[in-house]
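Subject: design request, 436 residues
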């Protein structure tokens, strides 16, 4: 089966959705399928070495066409020059890609596809796809790209799937006018897809209701990882009790809640030698927030017991996980999955998460962690303490989590499930064509 996978890149920082899509593409290839991965907006930033690929619907052109009609009349050579990966990476470091309210009108326009201001970019994408081997199926990596589904189906006449992974927090932060328009456009475009795949039961239920998706069109495929990449080293050296955090360093991910819980435990003195290690993406707009947290820690007298590791690579991430006693990312919003939980559990690290979003579903499926009330530093501190001060419990959770990730959340299992859905759609399409 020939699969085309369309994924928006980030340019310069690691993104869980991008890493998941790259893992899926690689695992599908290992199953014998032919996969063409196409970065949109910005180049991909991946944890493995890769050749630089051409970027379609480049972010600079998309932005300019939103801001001025004149950009739609740029000569072809100049438009192509603006799509250079090196230029797009440079631009990504200087723009704020997380300010939902500022990006509202452009989000709505992109969701309107060929009817939006970026219609020329949609046309350019279709022309490029026409130069490639005809795919049997196209996977659009998230619903924010649903605006291109209609043209994909018209141009290729093959099944098109949309993955649902983490769209709601961004859309819900838009202004009311833009949010209403975006959700309406998304409902219309999602209805045109042949199938939709949600990364968790929890998120699938939410999106089924919000997008009015027919039950037979929605499938659930949990994310998967290469668990062996994170396997414990087997060394038995004694390490200090350490709480870890592995996600973007921002308020939405609850880093301040974790810092407050850490300070509560330090002030109690109930966990001897306790440390906090924070790793993950830190964007320019996160620096003030992180600095304020570091100042709060320093004012409490515990700066020497904390460490912040921004924008680490894969090797450093694996080594980081192997230093932890437990991991917690107490996200405030309705996280659709949480790839960092699988990574921690694959490393034998028990997790402590708030009892909301997809976290209960993952913890129940793995038995690799404990849950606590959300948005409560006190409740989080108590849950962390229960794991940190009970070595038998921590060891059991770590073992259960590691075994469950290898069995239920492997990259191979994810790819097989996605491939099965794709193959069924391809077969149904072929049957329909034969009958007609």
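Subject: RE: design request

Done. Sequence follows.
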């Amino acid at each position: 089966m020939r699969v085309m996978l369309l994924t928006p890149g980030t340019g310069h920082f690691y993104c869980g959705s991008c890493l998941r899509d790259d893992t899926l593409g690689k695992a599908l290839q290992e199953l014998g399928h032919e996969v063409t991965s196409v970065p949109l907006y910005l180049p991909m930033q991946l944890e493995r070495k890769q050749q630089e690929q051409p970027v379609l619907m480049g972010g600079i052109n998309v932005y300019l066409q939103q801001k001025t009609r004149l950009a739609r009349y740029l000569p072809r050579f100049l438009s192509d020059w603006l799509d250079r990966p090196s230029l797009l990476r440079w631009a990504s470091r200087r723009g704020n890609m997380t300010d939902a309210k500022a990006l509202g009108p452009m989000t709505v326009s992109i969701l309107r596809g060929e009817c939006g201001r970026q219609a020329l970019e949609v046309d350019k994408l279709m022309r490029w796809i026409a130069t490639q081997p005809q795919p049997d199926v196209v996977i659009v990596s998230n619903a924010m790209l649903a605006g291109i589904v209609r043209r994909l189906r018209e141009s290729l006449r093959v099944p098109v799937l949309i993955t649902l992974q983490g769209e709601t927090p961004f859309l819900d932060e838009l202004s009311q006018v833009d949010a209403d328009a975006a959700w309406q456009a998304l409902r219309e475009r999602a209805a045109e897809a042949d199938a939709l795949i949600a990364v968790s039961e929890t998120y699938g239920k939410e999106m089924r209701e919000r997008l009015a998706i027919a039950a037979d069109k929605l499938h659930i495929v949990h994310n998967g990882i290469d668990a062996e990449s994170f396997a414990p080293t087997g060394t038995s050296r004694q390490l200090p009790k350490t709480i870890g955090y592995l996600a973007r360093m921002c308020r939405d991910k609850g880093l301040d809640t974790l810092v407050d819980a850490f300070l509560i435990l330090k002030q109690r003195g109930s966990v001897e030698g306790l440390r906090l290690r924070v790793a993950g993406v830190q964007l320019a707009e996160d620096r003030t927030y992180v600095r304020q947290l570091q100042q709060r820690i320093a004012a409490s007298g515990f700066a020497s017991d904390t460490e912040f590791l921004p924008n680490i690579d894969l090797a450093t991430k694996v080594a980081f996980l192997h230093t932890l006693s437990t991991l917690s990312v107490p996200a405030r919003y309705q996280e659709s999955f949480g790839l960092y939980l699988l990574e921690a559990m694959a490393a034998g690290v028990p997790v402590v998460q708030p009892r909301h979003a997809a976290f209960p579903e993952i913890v129940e499926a793995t038995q690799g962690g404990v849950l606590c009330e959300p948005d409560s530093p006190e409740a989080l501190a108590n849950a962390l303490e229960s794991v940190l001060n009970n070595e038998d419990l921590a060891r059991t959770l770590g073992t259960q989590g590691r075994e469950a990730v290898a069995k239920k959340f492997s990259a191979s299992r994810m790819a097989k499930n996605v491939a099965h859905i794709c193959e069924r759609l391809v077969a149904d399409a072929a049957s329909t064509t034969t009958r007609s």
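The chain has 18 helices and twelve strands.
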